[in-house]
Amino acid sequence: MTTTSSTAPPALTARRRRTVLAVCALSMFLVGLDTTIVNVGLPEIGRGLHVDTRALEWVVDAYTVVLAGLLIVSGALADRFGRRRVFQCGLIVFGVASVACAMAPSLGLLVAARAVQGMGASMLSPVALAIVVNAMPDPRERARAIGVWASVFGLSMAAGPVTGGALIAAFGWRSVFWVNAPVIVATLVLVALFVPESHGQRARRLDLPGQLLLTSTLCVSVGVLIEGPRIGWASPLAMAGYAVILAATAGFTWVELHRPEPLMDLRLFRRPLFTAAVLGAVAVFVALNVSLLLTTLYLQQARGWTPLAAGAATLPMALGATLCAPWSGTMVGRLGPRRPLLLAGGFTAAGGLCMVNLGDGTSVPLLLLAYLLIGIGFGFANAPITNTAVNGLPPSRAGVAGAITSTARQVGSAVGVALAGGLVAGAGPAGLAQASHPGWLLVTACGLFLLLVARTSRAATPPAR
């Protein structure tokens, strides 16, 4: 996200404001969808490109790591050069990269194209929200629009495997990337016709050293998690990775604390409420992505299901997220974040517990129940975490807090995929269910951690009724 302070918004009709929201929500749907749509296609991609599970993790994480690393700087660029302009650039980059993914003849080119796709996505998610906020000066209308925004994001993440399974069954794995092209073209036309230009009231300076160090830390951390099972956790290469992570983290901390306009305001982490919310965002997306990747590999490799059947099995997860995301937003507005966070943690932990003894013959109803519980937990989580992150901060800091929380979500996605892939790397179809048990315990632990975040949120000031 970017800062919400901006130039005076143009007077838009109610119909045009709704159109702006729809266009921006569509871009958010694409960003979230491409975070998870590839999961269900990984076995097919592996067979098509003749690569193993460990290498396939990069297809997912190249996108999420770059997206996480560039979210904040993209918001700063939009404030400086114009939000609509940067948004249009993001759409073009995202669309061209999607076509490159669809045509990639090898894993290396596919991973590179996915990284470029993440670069384009980083110019869509935070910038589109700033456009919506700028177009809706009325606080109540803006609050409803942000609620719609959160619901669309939750739906897109949960709907990815279902959509991917259907596309792969009908047209093959490359279709999950081709489908973006017509949507991007339509969105570009709608942006040109309906979305007004806006700038930040005061353009922030770019923090290039901080950006470089943050991206390095994320990339090397995820790389070590993915490659660790292959190279050995105590190997010289892994040790070198640990040293780079420590040095980059220390350098990033020093740079950010000494810059007048840092990329990430680390002083916010002095607030326990904010820190708990950021860690909660990581936990939610670790749980979701561990669940999605383990489900994909288990159903297709251990039980021999088709991509369509595996995607359809996650329908309860998508249903739970879709129904509970708007309900959670309403609860936060009326009761504060604690109750929906308790529900999020409880349902997520229950879903993980259903799967801790997963076997080759686990009943389908139990699988569907577990996916439903995890989907409900995910649906309840997003709104209260965002609320907890920004609660108690002055409006001028809310945009920064939201940007850090958005980054934390993508970090959680990347870490979840890396951890899940590492757990089952090298496990054959017969041993995959057993190898996944620690992953489901991790999902349970993430749910229990959300209960702690809910307890922390007690200190939040109750929202005005």
TrEMBL record:
Keyword tags: Antibiotic resistance, Cell membrane, Membrane, Transmembrane, Transmembrane helix, Transport
Main location: membrane
InterPro entries found in the cross-reference section: EmrB-like, MFS, MFS_dom, MFS_trans_sf, Sugar_transporter_CS
Compartment(s) where it occurs, according to its Swiss-Prot or TrEMBL record: Cell membrane
Topology relative to the membrane: Multi-pass membrane protein
Ranges annotated as spanning the membrane: 20-42, 62-78, 90-113, 119-136, 148-171, 177-196, 208-226, 232-255, 276-299, 305-328, 340-358, 364-390, 411-433, 439-457
Superkingdom of the organism of origin: Bacteria
Pfam families documented for this protein: MFS_1
Domain annotation Major facilitator superfamily (MFS) profile: ranges: 20-462
Family: Belongs to the major facilitator superfamily. EmrB family.
Annotated PANTHER family: MAJOR FACILITATOR SUPERFAMILY MULTIDRUG TRANSPORTER MFSC (PTHR42718)
Protein name: MFS transporter
Protein source organism: Streptomyces coeruleoprunus
